[in-house]
């Protein structure tokens, strides 16, 4: 049986490609609500951020999730990302 390649995604902050399990997915749904997708299966447009404290803090400082989705993002999203990273 042939071994499958792991899915590759690009971080919106560093623009580096990495395996999907090394990134955190953030989703914007049709109602322009932004949430963190821990399952990787939520409906909507997704963006990936590297699991690194410096990268998440850079995204928070430059408000990159809001720029990527063209919506206003609650600052608690960034705090939630940092909380997920600590777990």
Protein architecture, described:
- With 87 residues, the chain is an alpha+beta fold.
- It has one domain (8-86): 2-Layer Sandwich (Hypothetical Cytosolic Protein, Chain: A).
- The protein has 3 helices and 5 strands.
- Helix 1 (53-62) packs antiparallel against helix 3.
- The protein is globular and about 45 Å long.
What's a quick, concise take on this entry?
The protein has 87 residues and is α+β, with helices and mostly antiparallel strands. It has 3 helices and 5 strands. The mean pLDDT is 96.
Rg, Å, rounded = 13 Å
Please tell me the total number of domains. Answer: 1
Distance separating the two termini: 35 Å
Percentage of helical residues? 25-40%
Label the overall shape: globular
Q: Segments where pLDDT lies below 50 for 5+ residues?
A: none
Element order: H for helix, E for strand: EEEEEHHH
Strand order of the largest sheet: 4-3-5
Oligomer: single chain
Secondary-structure content class: alpha+beta
CATH architecture descriptor: 2-Layer Sandwich
**Relevant CATH superfamily:** YlxR-like
Strand content: 25-35%
Mean pLDDT: 96
Number of strands: 5
The CATH first-level class comes to Alpha Beta
Q: Biggest β-sheet: count, sense, barrel?
A: 3 strands, antiparallel
| Helical segment count | 3
Question: Under CATH, the topology is which?
Answer: Hypothetical Cytosolic Protein, Chain: A
């Amino acid at each position: 049986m042939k071994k499958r390649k792991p899915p590759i995604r690009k971080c919106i902050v560093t623009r580096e490609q990495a395996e999907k399990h090394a990134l955190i997915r953030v989703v914007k749904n049709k109602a322009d609500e932004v949430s963190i997708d821990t399952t990787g299966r939520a409906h909507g447009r997704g963006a990936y951020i590297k699991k690194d404290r410096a990268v998440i803090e850079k995204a928070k400082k430059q408000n990159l999730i809001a720029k990527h989705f063209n919506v206003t993002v609650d600052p608690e999203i960034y705090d939630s990302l940092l909380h997920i990273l600590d777990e």
